[in-house]
Write a structure and sequence with these properties.
The chain has 13 helices and 16 strands. By secondary structure, it is an alpha+beta fold. The protein has three domains: about 140 residues, Helix Hairpins (Orthogonal Bundle); about 130 residues, Chaperone, DNAj Protein, Chain A (Ribbon), CATH 2.10.230.10; about 100 residues, Urease metallochaperone UreE, N-terminal domain (HSP40/DNAj peptide-binding domain), CATH 2.60.260.20. The strands form six sheets. The chain has a four-stranded mixed beta sheet. The N and C termini lie far apart (about 70 Å).
Amino acid sequence: MSTKDYLEKDYYKVLGVSKTASQDEIKKAYRKLAQQYHPDRNKGDADAEDRFKEVSEANSVLSDEQRRKEYDQVRSMPSGFRGAGGGQGGGFGFDLGDLFGQGGPTPGGAGTHGAGERIGDLFGGLFNRGGTRTGTSARRARRGADVETEVTLPFGRAMNGVTVPLKLTSEAACPTCHGTGAKAGTVPRVCPNCEGTGQETRNLGNFGFSEPCHICRGRGLVVDDPCPTCSGSGRATGTRTIQARIPAGVADGQKIRLKGKGAPGENGGPAGDLYVNIKVTPHKVFGRSGDNLTLTVPVTFPEAALGAEIRVPTFQGQPVTLRVPEGTPNGRTFRVRGRGAARRDGTKGDLLVTVDVQVPGKLDDQTRTALESLRSSGEGDDLRGGLLQQAGEE
């Protein structure tokens, strides 16, 4: 990508975020778009692949605080400073080399000169006076892109933790030429145009505009006999399998970050991170509420009315005895300490047991007589009187 393209691209628009977006908002937008346009989900779709690369490129700039700062500062400059325009630096009547701290005084005195030095640092060699070359931009180490994937776990494995193999697709060094871009048995040579710097300077009168070399495309090397796999680029989209440890107690919808397990970096840069979206299949008996497990237990009407001690299951443990007090209403929840999901600090949540009072569908004569007697003993209690009265009020 040329310097002009870099300056003119609106990475905020690419990710669909505002210029004041936080890092969390940028990450969220990137992950959503990367998942939508990932090559694994859009096989054979060239437009989706281009969109995925564009989104990854925008994220690589905006997710890095320093690169984002530089990008914002360059974009905020007047267009005359950023465009290529004739001998007077796009309409300005002074030497842009001086402005960018390349030597000599600048208009406006010491204060302006200080700003020029900062701008010079900002551009990091993008602008150079008359014919000098620099390789700092081309040789800059770049962090690898973040990679996102998804794994579905049974309830038990999510509770206990598990190591799973993950097959990932990302751009990395070509497996055939190992990143050289040259066919087996050959080696690339130093580019004669840029002398290995990866940069060339266009002379625009009073200043030179540095951009990636058009011969080697910024690599600093020329491949005479290109690798058939990557066509000489040295990069290829490949698959790899890693073993990822999923900690105990992960919940459905949780995202696990594995540092340094993403796409490999370039020019010695660090690898990106891997984000694993967790999907957990439901259990037939137990549910989940935060770090707590949930369980619904049926009890009979006599047990709820008279009280009882009942045995309830625990997840992968021995049953426990739960005391149901006399007069327990339907839907009441009891807490069994330490029988829930694992937490990061090594402790466990609780088991929340909700009673479900069962009403018999069929009654024998003895049971019916007993219930009729119970109903007769409570005929003087008007349980719904207050409800009916309140319902009639305005």
